[in-house]
Amino acid sequence: MTHKDLLAVVSQFESPIYVYDAAKIESQYKRLRDAFKKVKQVKINYAVKALSNLSVIKLLNSLGSGMDTVSIQEVKLALEAGVAPGDIIYTPNGVSLAEIEKAAELGVQINIDNLSILEQFGTKHPKTPVCIRINPHVMAGGNTNISVGHIDSKFGISIHQMPHIERIVENTKMTINGIHMHTGSDILDIEVFLYASEILFESATHFSDLEFIDFGSGFKVPYKEGDIETNVEELGKKLSKRFNEFCVSYGKEITLAFEPGKFLVSEAGKFLVQVNVVKQTTSTVFAQVDSGFNHLIRPMLYGSQHEIENISNPNGRERFYSVVGYICETDTFANNRRIAEIREGDILSFSNAGAYCATMASNYNSRYRPAEVLFYNGKPHLIRQRETFEDILRNQVIFDVNA
Fold first, then answer.
1. What positions are modified (N6-(pyridoxal phosphate)lysine) (predicted)?
2. Is the pTM of the predicted complex or chain greater than 0.85?
């Protein structure tokens, strides 16, 4: 998408707005698929939590992707988008047995990450195949909030509790058809990932009916020019060799599965805002925009850095700006960032806005959530309308104190 394309989107649909490039989503999917082309059976399950728009789900499903879901609502979204139940894996954390049973009734693959629910589910539904999420006790991820495979994590069943798992499986006569891990997001060192994979391979030998091993994802994408990213080609070469060796020793071909979210959609997304005010203080020049962390929370929540371009004046002289939002508390997108000269009314474009931006948006300060547009075959298509005041009021029930 060119600057001209993005400016045309703002002209047609106004700002703030999320814009996704379908071509980039497709190329990232094919890149990951091709990295593991030497494995006979590979399944890529898109992590719906990254960007849960129905049109994006349909696009990825058309490419051959299954769906990785973490809630019953995401399961229903995937089904609504036309995804077959058999192409959906449901990997919740800390949910009730009732929710897991609802997902099982819908025919999707169940993935359980604690001993209590494993025993309860296996006792009541021994004929329903289950995947088990293992915690490999490996620290990986770019931020403590997104590192989920370490010893203090709430996710997964500890590898040291394997005897407990085996006892439950033996007592309930349930079938374990998959084993899974997810160490965290923003994997920098593939050797750490491969080390965790060895733990998963060893865990897999405890089960005789496996159909797949799910290695999670968390592959890092670049956030700025020259930024480090996960070398999925090198990972594909090394892990494919090891996986094929495991299949030989296991005695049958099983499926190698991944659940990428950010890797598939992050770089495809742009978030476009308009500059309301350029405010000079005694020490800082603020570019104050028509959005805030209610629409893009990651810089405030994770300290993430999103590249910011002034697409209205891309060739202007670079100056230092702090780009801030309109939320009524500290609301900073970037501090002292070099950006082409910003004027009031200019449109700024935030990169890497495809993952965990729209899905984490809120109505804080009673602001509307933005529209979403999918750029497909050279044309913008509205895939979510901008909210209205009626949406803010919806589901509110007024209590009449005078009644």
1. 49
2. yes
Angle subtended by helix axes 232-250 and 22-35, to nearest 10 = 50
CATH 3.40.50.2300 fits 22-262, yes or no: no
Domain ranges within the chain, ordered by starting residue: 22-262, 269-388
User: Please, which residues bridge with residue 279 across strands?
Assistant: 286
Q: What is the pLDDT of residues 311-368, one digit of tens each?
A: 999 999 999 999 999 999 999 999 999 999 999 999 999 999 999 999 999 999 999 9
| 218 labelled binding-site residue | yes
Query: One fold for both 22-262 and 269-388?
Result: no
Beta strands in 12-80 (DSSP E): 17-21, 42-47, 66-69
376 is in an annotated binding site: no
Pairing of strands 347-350, 269-280: antiparallel
CA distances (Å), 403 to each of 264, 398, 399, 400, in order?
54, 11, 8, 5
Query: Cα–Cα distance between 141 and 185 in angstroms, integer?
Result: 5
d(CA 360, CA 348): 20
Which residues are designated catalytic? 328
Instruction: Give the span between the Cα atoms of 300 and 281, in whole angstroms.
Output: 22
| Residue 298 annotated as lining a ligand binding site | yes
Domain 269-388's class?
mainly beta
